[in-house]
# Entry
Amino acid sequence: MARTPTTQIPLGFKAPDFNLPNVVNNKTTSLTDVAKKNGLVVMFICNHCPFVVHILKGIIELANDYQKKDIGFVAISSNDIINYPDDDPIKMKELALENNFPFDYLYDESQEIAKAYDAACTPDFSVFDQELNCIYRGQMDNARPGNEAINNGKDLRMVLDYILGGKKIDFEQKPSLGCNIKWK
# Structure
């Protein structure tokens, strides 16, 4: 299990648009379909990564809590499914249905969207404000497989609370850590 951090790039970039298939309903989903009035969380995840598996319930709880506050969430998987068949869209759909994902789970077969977002790992989180400018690229919390940290989403919750409170982020952004995206 490779430990790959989020790529640290300058913040402030506009969320790249996308049109990707939703594995649950087979409809195409765009950036404007998932962005909400108060912002958007774009998550690069996959089915098989132990880092994602470790925090998946926390991701779902976080999304359930903040979508009520008009913050959108979307999950995208960009992994090579030839060499990583657990990340196949059919299995993605199964995972989404089994866990009652409250957000769209999209498949980025070409890997172009992962590249557009400079995604490097799973999980990889980017948070966008009301104008869809990136204000955060970092971890959900300190929980990792094999450590005792509580999976409570504290870092992402703080960012989202700052957005809702109209505050500027003034704290250190720790990179997420996970498996590298499985490039073709």
Q: What stands out?
A: The longest helix spans residues 50-67. The mean pLDDT is 96.
